[in-house]
Design brief:
The chain has 246 residues and is of the alpha+beta class. Helices cover 24% and strands 22% of the residues.
Length: 246
């Protein structure tokens, strides 16, 4: 794992790569009381590359699995009080993972929607990958499972606008009022997380200049997108999106 301490007085300290171990935190650390926590920080990318290089044998030898990289940035201010922390810790852990859903990589999942639950709202932190956003969604997720569904379809506003699915961005196929086929995803208006997969799909759709499919042949495009992203991810195809570690 990789750890780097930060303070308002000294800035970033020297990074350390060490064996996986528990963290030692002051009981008053701000992350424990006020959810001062974010994911996917871009700082120290070179250090993360070195960590992956050292742990490269943990990368699964399978195209149905991958090595998950979780950078986390937490406030470690050792005092109570709602304020900006003066101390923080960036740490990165790695883990081999299989498909996100037990049903498989490309099998449909069941969705449950109810307007009484809202994932994010204007002026909030829904467009940021913060720990508090996930903890507050667990109750709705449990109710979805109680109703026989795998994920929550999040709604927002008086018109119950569709926003996201679970912790993921959403794309819809439809034919608009002019009879045109469209691939639609909610705009980045402050409540939508700007996901990497979301942007990758948009970039591919623009590059291919393809006709947007209807629901009847939509899976053909979805399969094409999945195959393309997998080929890039597993090194079968060169891309500017990838970084060669070893």
């Amino acid at each position: 794992m990789l750890t780097v301490e930060w303070s308002s007085e000294f800035g970033w300290e020297r990074p350390h790569i060490k064996p996986f171990q528990n963290l030692s935190l002051h009981p008053g650390s701000s992350v424990l009381h006020y959810a001062v926590e974010v994911f996917d920080k871009e700082e120290l990318l070179e250090c993360i590359q070195q960590l992956v290089k050292l742990d490269q044998e943990w990368v699964p030898y399978s195209t149905s699995a991958s090595l998950y990289i979780r950078p986390t940035f937490i406030g470690t201010e050792p005092s109570l009080g709602v304020k900006k922390p003066t101390k923080a810790l960036l740490f990165v852990i790695l883990s081999p993972v299989g498909p996100y859903f037990s049903s498989g990589t490309f099998n449909p999942v069941s969705l449950w929607a109810h307007p009484k639950y809202v994932r994010a709202w204007k002026g909030g932190t829904g467009d940021c990958k913060m720990g508090g956003n996930y903890g507050s969604s667990l109750f709705a997720q449990c109710e979805a499972m109680d109703n026989g569904c795998q994920q929550v379809l999040w709604l927002y506003g008086e018109n119950n606008q569709i926003t996201e699915v679970g912790t993921m961005n959403l794309f819809l196929y439809w034919i608009n009022e002019d009879g045109e086929e469209e691939l639609v995803t909610p705009p980045l208006d402050g409540i939508i997380l700007p996901g990497v997969t979301r942007q990758s799909i948009l970039d591919l759709a623009l590059k291919w200049t393809i006709h947007i499919p209807t629901m009847e042949n939509g899976p053909k495009l979805a399969s094409r997108i999945l195959d393309k992203l997998n080929n890039i991810q597993y090194g079968r195809e060169e891309s500017d999106w990838t970084i060669i570690v070893s």
